[in-house]
Amino acid sequence: MSIQKLPPQSIEAEKATLGCLLLKSDLIETSSMIFEDDFILPSHRIIFRSIQSVIRKNLPVDILTVSQQLMSENLLENVGGASYISSLPDNIPTTNNYSSYVEIVKECALRRKLIEVANNIIAESYDRNIELEEIIDKVEQEILQVTAFDYKEKFHFLKDIILDILNDMETRKKSETAYTGIPSGYPTLDKITSGFEKGDLIIIAARPSVGKTTFALNLALNMAMNFDKIVGFFSLEMSAKMLGYKIISRTAKISVNQIRKGDIVFADIQKLVDAVSLIFEKKIIFDEASSLTLFDIKQRARRLKSKYGLDAIFVDYLQLISPPLNSKIENRVQIVSDISKGLKQLAKELEIPVIACAQLSRAPEKREDKRPQLSDLRESGSIEQDADFVGFLYREDYYKSKKNENVDQESKNVTEFIIGKQRLGRRGDIIKFKFYEDYSYFEEMAEQNVD
After folding, report:
1. End-to-end CA distance of the chain
2. Which of 73, 159, 382, 432 pairs as cysteine with 337 (C-beta 3.0–4.6 A)?
């Protein structure tokens, strides 16, 4: 005979929490946040909801006002009547223990949630009609949300959003930076974008050999070196060691080939030592697997976020992401569309910017003006729709060298970064960079025609 186990609960802690709120309602705004679903008893959920209603009406919270609120909703008798409400504060020695009561309630709620997730895992694992990857993906997402105490209200009143924005403005006014997102380390680009925002999908697109990998690496290094950000870099094209060569070369301003060959002149040894000391402890985490599906990237990104706390993710490059195993979709445009949607969802889920490189089609080479356009995104699918920001890299000498035309020294290696799309800003601005290919280094030029 099996014994039915009671779900984790502490009725006394729930009573104590509600009692504290009846005595001192401003506790609800403290860091020990608690939500309606954290209570196991329906009556306690109703009482908590009524306390919130009284607060929203700007009324004092006490036994009388909460009882009146419950009575107006015909719920007073459902929770045990006025006598039960009156009894809640009776056994509370001090409201100073409120945080401890809340922690007990939240721990029990977390355990119940984990049990619920585990039961769902068991049920879905028995269902052979559900793909294994789909189950694992869902499990990791749910476990991450539960263990991160992801109890977030889904609805936001306009007034709360406005207050949040005003607080942000005030904070930025008092601080030294005006950026709302993670800075790229390039002043003109940051002035236009205000940094890369949490939850945004950023696309950096170019034709092959223009320098999109190197540009992305420069952004990642700037974030890690200048702003102490933790960056994940999924490289589907180059090995982590090759990227390491580029990083050392870029920081030391020594040719990549010299470093690879060990051909370092005496005068450059100190530069190399200084560069290594600058970047040695910076947190850029590379994943160099050459064949990753979107599922793999999401799975690994969640683990990185959980273990190290990611601030941004780079993916190089989007079209190299493999379709799902046993996928029946043969349309390449649909596959790329699913990938771009998935990367956008990942950015929102982990609340970080995802910066993905993308390859352009040959369409620019067929036009007189070779500057890229959104329609040039190769197998674009819904990339331009899903992306919050799209930047194109364009080098005039790239096309001139193909035609064996002379390139004047002034325009040689000048790279334009063209803002093709910006969801919360203007588009069409062009930022000019000097590309030092030997050093894998993009330097923002001093003179810019950007207001």
Report:
1. 77
2. 382
User: DSSP for 310-361?
Assistant: -SEEEEE-GGGSBPPTT-----HHHHHHHHHHHHHHHHHHHTS-EEEEEEB-
Please report which confidence band the pLDDT of residue 380 belongs to, taking 50, 70 and 90 as the band edges. Answer: low
Q: In sequence order, what are the residues at sequence separation of 6 or more whose Cβ sits closer than 8 angstroms to the Cβ of residue 242?
A: none
* Amino acid letter for position 398: Y
Q: What is the CATH number of domain 161-444?
A: 3.40.50.300
Percent of all residues in the chain with a pLDDT value above 70, rounded to a whole number? 88
pLDDT tier at 354 (50, 70, 90 boundaries)?
A: very high
Residue of 237, 288, 416, 444 marked catalytic: 237
Dihedral angle computed from the Cα positions of residues 23, 29, 34 and 39, in that order, rounded to the nearest 10 degrees: 30
**What is the three-class DSSP state of 286?**
strand
Mean per-residue pLDDT, 304-311? 85
Q: What is the dihedral of CA 122, 124, 127, 130, to 10 degrees?
A: -150
Quote the mean pLDDT of the chain.
Answer: 82
Report how far residue 114's alpha carbon sits from residue 38's, in angstroms, rounded to the nearest whole number: 13
Q: What is the pLDDT of residues 288-298, one digit of tens each?
A: 777 788 888 88
| C-alpha torsion sign, points 450, 396, 393, 437 | negative
Alpha-carbon distances of 52 from 22, 388, 395, rounded to whole Å: 11, 36, 59
Q: Is residue 237 annotated as a catalytic residue, yes or no?
A: yes
For 65-115, write each residue's pLDDT tens digit: 999 999 999 999 999 998 999 999 887 878 888 888 888 998 899 889 888
Average the pLDDT over 212-233 and give the result: 92
Q: For the chain, what are the domain ranges?
A: 11-121, 161-444
Q: What is the CATH number that goes with domain 11-121?
A: 1.10.860.10
**The pair of three-digit structure tokens given for residue 278, joined into one six-digit string:** 């600058």
